[in-house]
Amino acid sequence: MAVPRLPAPLILLLWAVRASDGQADNRTEGTILETSPFPSQAQQMLDMSYTPEPLEAHKESFPGRVSATDPYIDPATATKVRAYAGTTAFIPCIVNNLGQRSVSWVRHHDIHVLTVGRFTFTNDDRFEVHHDDGSNEWLLRLRSPTTNDSGTYECQINTKPTITQLINLVVLEPRAVITAGSELYLDRGSTLRLTCQVRDAPSPSEFLLWYHEQKQVANYEVEKVEVSVGADDNGTTVSTLTLEDAQVHNSGLYTCSPSNAKPSSIRVHVLSGEHPAAMQTNSSPCLMCPRSSSSSSSFLYWRGNLSSSLLPFFMLLLALLASPFRPLQQALLLALLVSSAALQQAS
Questions:
Q1: Core-most of 16, 103, 166, 195, by most CB within 10 Å?
Q2: pLDDT score of 57
Q3: How confident is the model at residue 274 (pLDDT cuts 50, 70, 90)?
């Protein structure tokens, strides 16, 4: 059963007694005296805000050798634990022949001591150690984990050298995934088919709803929409939305929303004989650009406008330079007028 948190003075007093027992055992065995990382009982009583100094975080596991008398971490202890966001995660550590030693849990990414023995040394009240009397299993319990809690946790026995086991916690967040991606283009009259998978969920979804522009698809009375929900061989919830003869007004945002996972959305574009690239180009109008999409016709457009705008200028220039017009000037002016008319006709 889980041990409730005790008042700080009682915890400190118990640790003082336990530290003295550990020192007596060390002297009896003739080993090097182990320096306790905790201050004396008097210092603890004077400083009620005391927290233990961080224990050493190891890069590799050293579970100890299997022995009939010495403490060691059982090889059956898992090195990887998978949990789901919002549930309760249990990280086990199986310790044999513990004797008067203690088990500690350390979080690696910030080298933070979470628990020592049965007591918790962190302000995060989601963490708690669970140990039943007579059992060799020390469970670090984490309530409502998130993906940020994923990482390495270390189970330690306070021996010299320290016996340790590294355990990797992976917290999965259930989520919906629409296999077509985030955007889909199809021609008018085609069949719209969307498939949604619920991944990393601990159990199948109780229900799954489809929405089109925040309106539940099942409420459609005019459209003939088929929605199927089932499970694949791995137990993953899979739903398929099918709409035959899709029309332009069926475009918009479609959302797959399971009961036990984050929703997923896709934007559908039903085209009326228009290429997706052309539609995206037309969506950002250029007021100063020619309307023709052809580069050659754009050139003719500007060339025609240029010739027609410069014609009055040339006529005025000729009139200023020569008056009255001579036969050569008249022929030149006539040629200019003919060429301008030809350019306008070509444009």
A1: 103
A2: 75
A3: low
Cβ–Cβ < 8 Å for 205, 261? yes
Question: 231-257 burial by CB neighbour count: b if 16+ within 10 A, else e?
Answer: eeeeebbbbebebeebeeebbeebbbb
- Please state, in angstroms and rounded to a whole number, the distance separating the CA atoms of residues 170 and 61: 18
Distance from C-alpha of 159 to C-alpha of 73, rounded to nearest angstrom: 12
101 — pLDDT class (breaks 50, 70, 90): very high
What pLDDT sits at residue 224?
Answer: 79
Residue whose pair of structure tokens reads 């050293």 in the numeric block:
62
Residue 329: what are its φ and ψ, rounded to 5°?
-65, -40
Band (pLDDT 50/70/90 cuts) for residue 282 is very low
Residue 272 CB neighbours (<10 A): 10
Using only the alpha carbons of the chain, give its radius of gyration.
39
Q: Is the Cβ–Cβ distance between 190 and 268 less than 8 Å?
A: no
Which residue bears the tokens 């791995």?
Answer: 234
Closest CA to 149 of 179, 97, 181, 110: 110
Helices 295-321 & 327-346 angle (0-180, nearest 10): 160
Q: What is the mean pLDDT of residues 302-322?
A: 51
- DSSP 8-state symbol, 204: -
User: Are the beta carbons of 62 and 35 closer than 8 angstroms?
Assistant: no
Residues in a beta bridge with 193: 242
Separation between Cα atoms, residue 56 and residue 166, nearest integer Å: 13
DSSP, collapsed to helix, strand or coil, labels residue 343 as helix
The DSSP string of 258-284 is: ETTSB-EEEEEEEESS--HHHHHHHTS
CA distance linking residue 138 with residue 323, whole number of Å: 113
- The vertex-219 CA angle with 217 and 224, nearest 5°, equals 65
Handedness of CA 29, 35, 41, 42 (dihedral sign): positive
For residue 15, the model assigns a pLDDT of 41
> What is the average per-residue pLDDT within 148-165?
95
Contact 208, 259 (CB under 8 A): yes
